[in-house]
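Entry
Fold in token form

___
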Amino acid sequence: MLSTEFIFRIIGMIVFTIVGGYAGAWLGRVSGAPLELYTVTFALVGSLFGLVLTPFFTTRPVRALRALLGRLAAETLFAGLLGLIIGLLTAALLAFPLSLLPSPFGNILPFIGVLLFSYFGISLFVMRQGDIIGLLSSFASRGGDGAPPTWSNTNRTILLDTSVIIDGRVADIAKTGFLPGTLLIPRFVLNELQYIADSPDSLRRARGRRGMEILAELQKQPNVMVRISDIDVEGVREVDDKLVILARQLRCPILTNDYNLNRIAELQGVPILNINELANAVKSVVLPGETLTINIIQEGKEPGQGVGYMDDGTMVVVENGKEYIGEYREVTVGKVLQTAAGRMIFARVIEGEKEKH
């Protein structure tokens, strides 16, 4: 099947061959040179010109425009189109009074007004696209069921990283309503997830398939807005770099639990929603001197230590707990440490409990 570019090359070659032939015949008649020689020569030059250069002012600009529009979010396109319409309407209202001005102002200023108001309309609406789309959403929610406007939440866009989809906790968090707005999953993230699901390594394959299941579960939730977009970043291969650039373009945060992506995004001023930080923030708060009941399940790294866990997964290192492994014991909190891996509590078995044992 012939490509579009090849067809345009052939059409351009024919058109410029005819134009070149006519130009050569005219030049031959004017200069008195051999008519046939000039006609054939200019026709061949026009044919070569049309064959080689036609794509550069036909298909190539259209392809570049499509790529540019493909990188833009739907909200940006809508805001730009709305701004263009408002700008053109404003220019049309001013065209008549401007046309009454003396020449040449009456002829030039209406056209300049169209250009200026179109530019300012698009720029203003794209710059304030969040407020505009949100305002329209609030009107829609009021007109539908009389619910109070929540456009600041519903308009929010959150980019999802591959790691956070595989992690699985995002589905439970989204169900609770703590992720208001649209969860945006670019196609390149979905492609990476599919690549992991097709991996020959059984562990990676299982993680990828779990990510697919989590994504399907998110799409089924009625109160969770999930959108898969073909938006892409040209000239960048790494998924993390694409996410950071895309987040800067869309002015939205990235939901992730990837430490490296977290650091890269912070250095470039991109907001990050880290699920691990959220998990640490909602863990139970304990203070030195408080009493806990812990099931000591294994030995610690240091001699005599035992290790147990609270209901929220917080590790409790019991200094003198080795001899109580497999038992529930009351312990007194000594100190609480916040590490990169999470919160860690150091405690000791209450002496009264030790005597009872």
